[in-house]
Amino acid sequence: MSSEPFRPRLHFSPATGWLNDPNGLIFVDGVWHVFYQHHPHSTLWGPMHWGHASSRDLVNWTHLPIALKPDTLGTCFSGSAVATPEGEIKLFYTAHQTALDGSDFQVQCLVHADHELTSFAGDERNPVVDNPGLSAFRDPKVFWHEPTRRWIMVVTHGQSIGIRSSSDLVNWALESEFGDRDGRHGNGPWECPDLFPLQAADGTTHWILLVGIGSDSYGGGSGTQYFIGDFDGHRFANGNSSDTVLWADYGRDYYAAQSFHGAPRPTTMAWASNWQYARETPTRSFRGVLSLPRELGIADTPSGMRLVQGVPPHLASTFDTLPPAGVPKTGTYHFRLEISEEPQVAVCLFGEAEPQFTLHRVVTGWHLRTVRRDKSRIGASFAHDYVLGISGSITHIDFYVDNGLVELRSSDGLVWLTSLYFPEDVAGAVRVEPTRTTIVNAQPRSGSSQVRMLQN
To answer: Is 243 annotated as catalytic?
Structure first.
């Protein structure tokens, strides 16, 4: 697999075939399990299965047999996994069928798994949630709500999120809906919701609602927004004004983020691609990768409580060190750009004459210039320039680069950007071009190699 130039080393990818949304993320007995939307017979989107892989460290993954396959109820769209107090593992997914007129019909189904997640059997009562008359009714995320002693399901209701409750994981009652007038709305439905609590430094609890939108995200195309507020077991109350839009990632390639059930620390993964061009990316035996896992927290900022994200330290330490000369030994490396005097500075990756990635300081913020089309003639939407939502004084930016996939972290985890590239040289030189002389610290892990920026 490593002979494929665009297969990442530290981002999860399928052995073969197509991958999109992460599904059923769960941590059981010291093992991280990732299920994912998968077409095993093609590198194009097709009849959806649930692929399956596991890891003890989020670095080394074991590919496992396909968990869910299409049946008489339909193909297997996105969903979630939970462990009951009795130690039973339950999976929820959307069974999807396409009618003769091309319309979609979707219902929610329950699957019983053994504790080792090696066998899976659909409940004989499926579907456990019938379609209430919606064309987009999918992506159930289930969790236990201790204060009300009930299971909660959040699920796509077109351009809003439905909230249901159950005492037995089979019989579900609608509690409320959220979002038809909140946040960002594109042309398609809201997708892949997730709802979970985070504790602030002062001990207060705040609830995060993640929502994917298929179009009109910050970077264009699909993206992941979030809301922060309160949840009482019945309704989610947005803690910000309805027109406030918050992004889990400002890049073009971070979608359908989901949290791990049962994880020792709140941890998410997402699909690192975009529906505008996901079917056209120039890989060979596989297509689609997941983002790095991110550990979550919240911070009290001048604008209010906001989500903060970071790479697990043990995972960050597996990236290669960037040498002082700025020429990576491999295509998988991390460095920290330390900005001593907030200069106008440009960071260039993947190419000497015309870098495919250029991040530079402008008056309004940090501007990302991308040149992402290559000989495969990926559509024009794949190349996109925009200004990042980074405000205030920036002292450092972390770059996680993995064979063309770039994840940036700044503002102590308040701002992330995930961007996918297919450069001619995944290990091309890292170049820094300031408008005046200053010093940049390249710090993969705990190193302290100095990179001197040249006078323009």
So the answer is: no
